[in-house]
Design goal:
Order of helices and strands of chain B: EHEHEHE
Structural class of chain B: alpha/beta
Strand content of chain A: under 5%
Helix content of chain B: 25-40%
Largest sheet of chain A: none
Structural class of chain A: mainly alpha
Helix content of chain A: 55-70%
Number of helices of chain A: 7
Largest sheet of chain B: 3 strands, parallel
Order of helices and strands of chain A: EHHHHHHH
Oligomer: heterodimer
Strand order of the largest sheet of chain B: 3-2-4
Largest interface: A-B, 44 and 46 residues
Radius of gyration of chain A: 18 Å
Distance between the termini of chain A: 42 Å
């Protein structure tokens, strides 16, 4: 690569076996049916909003599904973070399409029901119910979901042809990364 | 002769350096490339890494932006 015009190439010492950061899993195609690669920036924002809303619904549903008060409070906190993500996405959408009068009108058009990471909330809950009983469990699970979401947004950016849409996806991915870093700090404090 | 390849050494990052790099740089300003086989990529990858198996790399370099710092594993 260095001989093919790439000016800055790094090799990860020890490869993935040595990697101690978060890891995403699953085939490259998972969740990709939702995008064609031809979406406009506004369409991508709508898609992301739907996913964030699906995930928020999942966190809200979990608050009444757990017995431990501390765990329930963490789910509420996670749902609140998704709310802020949604606010940011709506703001971004308004910048792209100022003709949308309000949030209600915007929400009437959203994709919905598909949570971040490409699974529906119900599917995910069913698969992972037993792994969400303690605070570390919940934080681990949330970090796993957000990691998958980050990976999915970046895979979307690979598939997207429009540079502006790519930019929006990078911006959303950056938000996810910041969210992950915040969860990591909560994890350090609580585990 | 591609003389440039002798002047641009590929540097290594250990996991801590790579984590710090990814954390400090905005998405879209660098590229992560996973050159392993799809089965390995599916089991675990750095989030956002683009899968280009090593045997395909030379034919698919055009999919990558040479202007962006690129971390390969």
């Amino acid at each position: 690569m260095a001989g093919q015009g790439f000016n800055e190439v790094y090799n990860l010492k020890g490869g993935i076996a040595a990697w101690q950061g978060l890891k995403a899993i699953g085939p490259a195609e998972v969740g990709m049916a939702l995008v064609t690669g031809d979406e406009t920036p506004a369409e991508i924002v709508v898609l992301a909003y739907g996913m964030e809303e699906g995930l928020q619904g999942f966190y809200v549903a979990m608050t009444s599904n757990v017995n431990d008060k501390e765990v329930a409070a963490m789910f509420t906190k996670l749902a609140d973070i998704e709310d802020r993500h949604k606010e940011k996405l709506f703001k971004l959408y308004r910048e792209l399409d100022p003709s949308v009068p309000d949030l209600e009108t915007f929400e009437a058009d959203i994709v919905g029901k598909v949570m971040e990471g490409g699974l529906t909330a119900e599917e995910f809950l069913e698969k992972n119910r037993l792994a969400m009983e303690t605070l570390p469990d919940v934080l681990n699970m949330a970090m796993m979901i957000e990691t998958q979401a980050l990976d999915l947004y970046l895979r979307y950016s690979n598939k997207t042809k429009d540079e502006k849409t790519k930019g929006v996806l990078f911006e959303i991915a950056q938000e996810e990364k910041a969210h992950l870093a915040a969860l990591g700090r909560v994890m350090d404090k609580n585990v | 002769m591609r003389w440039k390849q002798f002047l641009i050494p590929v540097r290594s990052m250990d996991t801590e350096e790579a984590r710090a790099y990814i954390g400090e740089h905005k998405e879209g300003t660098f590229t992560l490339v996973d050159v392993r086989q799809p089965g390995e990529y599916e089991k675990a990858r750095i989030p956002g890494a683009k899968l280009i198996p090593l045997p395909e790399l030379s034919d698919r370099l055009a999919e990558l932006d040479p202007e962006k710092p690129t971390l390969v594993y």
